[in-house]
Design goal:
With about 220 residues, the protein is α+β, with helices and mostly antiparallel strands. It has two domains: about 30 residues; about 180 residues, START domain (Alpha-D-Glucose-1,6-Bisphosphate, Chain A, domain 4), CATH 3.30.530.20. About 40% of the residues lie in helices and about 20% in strands. The protein has a six-stranded antiparallel β-sheet with strand order 1-6-5-4-3-2, covered by helices on one side. Helix 2 packs across helix 4. The longest helix has about 40 residues. The radius of gyration is 20 Å and the shape is globular. The termini are far apart.
Length: about 220
Amino acid sequence: MRARRISAAAVGAVVGGVVAYLTVGRKPCLTWGATDDEPRRVLPGDDLLADPDVVSTRAITIDAPPSSIWPWLMQMGSGKGGMYTYDWIENLLGLNMHSAYEVLPQFQDRKIGDVEQLGTSGPRMQVAILESEFAMVLQSDDGNWVWAFCLFPLDARHTRLVSRNRIASPGASQLMRIVQTLVMEPGSLIMERRMLIGIKTRAGSLEATDRMVPPVQG
């Protein structure tokens, strides 16, 4: 009888957690850091995947202009500047991520059409849109994942970095859709939150360093 009560309580807790996430927690998970209007804002790349199953729009304010943030976006990737998140988690998946703490000049020449593979067996992401100091949009080979990074200046020294993921899962089973909703969405928040904070820290430090450099005397 006691075992039954424990099992019933465990099932109730799981069901309660699922209901709480779907009714209360899911929106904050998918819109972490975003203002009320940013999830509704049309961004470059939205038209590349018109009918996604999942859309997340997460954002952060960075104490730097776009020019100090853009180099960190340009060098993102496996075997390059990393993703500025939890490298140890990504490397458990074989993604070869080693987040840099400096701007790497050799990785600043990204172009439309360039293909980046996440690790040795991860998805291949092609640069679909590239507008300097404004937007970088990546799209997977199968077209089912579009990831956009956009910069919106607030003033001379503050910028909003908005990251939007649009993901489609054609042919996915109901079980896989449940796993995606209840496991992958919260997991993506953990990783992407760290990434956005990592970019904020690095770009802010670069901007502070630039301001400390004395002007050249003519």
